[in-house]
Amino acid sequence: MIESNQIILTGVIVLLAFLLLIIGIQVFLILNEFRKSLRQFNGMIGGFKTMTDTATETFKTVAEKSTSIAGLANLVNLFLQRREKKK
Question: What DSSP string describes 23-73?
């Protein structure tokens, strides 16, 4: 016959196994939500990278244009200075 201690021990083991199953499912769901959050965060970072790349290109273009304009202004000044020297 089964003693009362064996029945209690079996009941505790079954209860603990059930609790571990529930905890395992909860951990799985938490990790799944964490993965979704990381994907969203990665998408946001990718968007920021695109924005900063675009801004960098824009500023680079503006800097190149201003350098070209400054060079043209220096050339005009040089031409005007030489013209004044000839007079």
Answer: HHHHHHHHHHHHHHHHHHHHHHHHHHHHHHHHHHHHHHHHHHHHHHHHHHH
